[in-house]
């Protein structure tokens, strides 16, 4: 029994020792395999990121498609959508400096005709109560006649950059001064229209106008007696009627208040107007190209009264508006929906007429100018086949390259949804 016990003890001891030794060996092998697998996965991930990440962000790829979506972000304000696409700028071939910018000799080779404005309309002879309106009371017949270009306007050598903030809807964003040449600082007017509420707000944030009324490059112009209760519609006055507000300017650039200008204005005018021999330039929308899509999006996000949108859209369809077809070689524009936050224009007669007609649609129907852009342009072309209008619709990524885009401070109130 003693020998058996000793043998058992020895056997037990040896077996136990072997188990312990095997356990230690197994532990060392497991840890080694773990680190090897971890290193392998890290290497694969790094190679994947380098290959696909650099390919996605390469300038050549971005130039090929202006609407590249490389990331999706959560957006609680996207009307129920959980993700929001993010877009990036592309390269723009601007002149190196304004020293190389020259106005082409043929810049005036556009349609010339007389353009008359009605400063004050006559009160109707009927006994009904007459209420003055900023946009007047044009009848449908008068509206129809206004699309005809009836046959020189002033010529000046000034340019202006304008924007507006009404209802404290945005922060004041100054143009990047170091990107603007001394020449443009002396010859280009930078005008920011604000109401008294906005002036008080931006002043409390440190943007107090100096003795000349400037905040940086912006000349602050205070607007009183606003023409509309709807601040969005009020903002369309400086946006679409710059030729009326600045009658001595030959060129103008509109910049939405959600953007900060990072480019010299003269370089912008040269690139979008002179180089392309255009008199009006605006970018296409980054995501939508058909008015049908824009109507649905406005209603889905409750951007305006649904009944008013339907009335406007029904009227446009009855007057010949059709769906955008990118495959149609005769389609006059690369998109029927613009991104209207950045507009470059020469104050030529046909350009001024288009701007007035576009504003008239905003005044008569909804303030959503993206709904009326294509209709106004197509109808103007249709009714004036012998008077060409040189409109340049450029890529949205070019717009993003020239000005930094921010979010609005607050959403302005909209008419109730029905």
From TrEMBL:
Keyword Metal-binding applies: no
Transmembrane residue ranges: 34-54
Source species, domain of life: Eukaryota
UniProt keyword annotations, A-Z: Membrane, Transmembrane, Transmembrane helix
Domain TOD1/MUCI70 glycosyltransferase-like: 161-408
InterPro entries hit by this protein: TOD1_MUCI70, TOD1_MUCI70_glycTrfase_dom
Pfam family, any one: TOD1_MUCI70
PANTHER family reported in the protein's UniProt record: ALKALINE CERAMIDASE-RELATED, TRANSMEMBRANE PROTEIN
Record-given protein name: TOD1/MUCI70 glycosyltransferase-like domain-containing protein
Native species: Rubus argutus
């Amino acid at each position: 029994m003693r020998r058996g016990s000793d043998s058992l003890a020895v056997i037990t001891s040896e077996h136990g020792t072997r188990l312990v030794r095997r356990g230690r060996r197994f532990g060392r092998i497991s840890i080694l395999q773990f680190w090897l697998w971890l290193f392998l996965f890290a290497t694969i991930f790094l190679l994947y990121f380098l290959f696909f990440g650099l390919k996605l962000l390469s300038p050549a790829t971005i130039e090929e498609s202006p609407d590249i979506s490389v990331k999706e972000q959560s957006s609680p304000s996207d009307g129920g959508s959980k993700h929001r696409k993010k877009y990036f700028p592309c390269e723009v071939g601007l002149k190196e400096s304004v020293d190389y910018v020259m106005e082409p000799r043929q810049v005036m080779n556009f349609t010339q005709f007389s353009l008359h404005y009605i400063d004050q309309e006559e009160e109707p002879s009927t006994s009904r109560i007459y209420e003055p309106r900023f946009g007047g009371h044009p009848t449908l017949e008068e509206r129809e006649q206004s699309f005809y270009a009836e046959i020189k306007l002033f010529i000046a050598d000034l340019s202006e950059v304008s924007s507006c903030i009404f209802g404290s809807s945005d922060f004041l964003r100054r143009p990047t001064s170091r990107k603007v040449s001394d020449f443009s600082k002396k010859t280009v007017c930078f005008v920011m229209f604000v109401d008294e509420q906005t002036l008080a707000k931006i002043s409390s944030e440190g943007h107090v106008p100096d003795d000349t009324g400037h905040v940086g490059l912006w000349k602050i112009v205070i607007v009183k007696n606003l023409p509309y209760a709807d601040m969005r519609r009020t903002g369309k006055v400086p946006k679409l009627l710059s030729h009326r507000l600045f009658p001595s300017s030959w060129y103008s650039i509109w910049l939405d208040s959600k953007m900060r200008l990072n480019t010299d204005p003269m370089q912008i005018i040269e690139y979008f107007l002179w180089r392309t021999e255009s008199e009006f330039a605006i970018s296409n929308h980054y995501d939508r190209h058909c008015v049908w899509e824009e109507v649905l999006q406005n209603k889905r996000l409750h951007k305006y009264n649904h009944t008013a949108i339907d009335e406007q859209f029904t009227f446009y369809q009855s007057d010949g508006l059709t769906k955008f077809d990118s495959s149609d070689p005769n389609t006059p524009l690369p998109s029927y929906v613009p991104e209207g936050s950045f507009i470059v224009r020469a104050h030529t007669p046909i350009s001024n007429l288009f701007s007035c007609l576009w504003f008239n649609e905003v005044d008569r129907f909804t303030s959503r100018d993206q709904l009326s852009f294509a209709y106004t342009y197509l109808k103007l072309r249709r009714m004036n086949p012998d008077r060409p209008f040189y409109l340049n619709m450029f890529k949205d990524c070019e717009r993003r390259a020239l000005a930094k885009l921010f979010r609005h401070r607050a959403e302005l109130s909209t008419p109730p949804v029905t």
